[in-house]
Amino acid sequence: MADTNKITVPLSADDVTPKWILQVMAKSLGKPEADLEVATLEPIADNAGLMSETFRAKVVDHEAVHNLFIKISLPKEDPWNAFIASNNIGKLRNLGFKDFLIC
What we know:
The protein is of the alpha+beta class.
């Protein structure tokens, strides 16, 4: 049986949607998705030096405003991926985020 509470990790910019953000934030905050609203979601245009795609989002609920910085891996066809893979940068970078992952 499939785990209906499982949240997938975005593999492309198209996967970073308001629905995905609501799922992640609902799980993180322990609140129903219906109590949350994605007020803004926008790509950060200048990703220079980040070796990833980045987004800004704002989620609001009855109690607070949550400002998010979302970072996902580059698309497979991006030329930086060869450098990242050959230097084990992805694994090293992710170790720094390990304590913050919620899904």
